[in-house]
Hints:
alpha/beta, TIM Barrel, 2 domains, 8-stranded parallel barrel, 11 helices, 41% helix
Amino acid sequence: xxxxxxxxxxxxxxxxxxxxxxxxxxxxxxxxxxxxxxxxxxxxxxxxxxxxxxxxxxxxxxxxxxxxxxxxxxxxxxxxxxxxxxxxxxxxxxxxxxxxxxxxxxxxxxxxxxxxxxxxxxxxxxxxxxxxxxxxxxxxxxxxxxxxxxxxxxxxxxxxxxxxxxxxxxxxxxxxxxxxxxxxxxxxxxxxxxxxxxxxxxxxxxxxxxxxxxxxxxxxxxxxxxxxxxxxxxxxxxxxxxxxxxxxxxxxxxxxxxxxxxxxxxxxxxxxxxxxxxxxxxxxxxxxxxxxxxx
Length: 295
């Protein structure tokens, strides 16, 4: 999409397609980048219209949409379906696909093949990989194939077991230094941005100052170049407690429950449907129908 549909004097975001250089410029100016995790066309369309810069199709779909207890079981085929749907609902934002566990760990070749699938089959414009270390060679291989890569360090859900569970990372001096070194390594490997998840604000500040690419925080404080939250979390779609870093902007689960209760009651009491919700039939045609049925 290359046409700007907004008038120069109109408020709100530009409708120009978000580009990687634009994200870099925003970070350099100190303008906050908005990213949201969404998994389908209606959600992506609403987020896109709101002016977010990046839509991440996260493997968190495994817990939020598929009802699992972790992101590990999510498959490539499932992620392709979610990414394709979100891409169809997006006109302006950059669509980033989360590469699921097993899609890039095996080899550089499999990492490139799966990243290409996200672009060719699902319409993604970039992919995201968790971790550093051995992941660095996979990132370089994918970038060499012409696909932009977003990094992800701190709490990396795909390896949560090795990290001791879903808890904040980098809370000691040694662990913080390792995260800073990993961020620098991710930048050198060619990542255009890095997600920092569940790390102390002081550490994310050092990382943001140490690299020249945008940092996107989730539970990483205010020093990052931008922020991301999961669609279901910020809208209150999932009842119950949420991580400390989540701010609920709505209680849609409550609204849905109240609506469903009213729906059930209306049907049980025959309050729905009414004449307003039914289709009529011309009297003459109804008489002809009755005659045909009697014959």
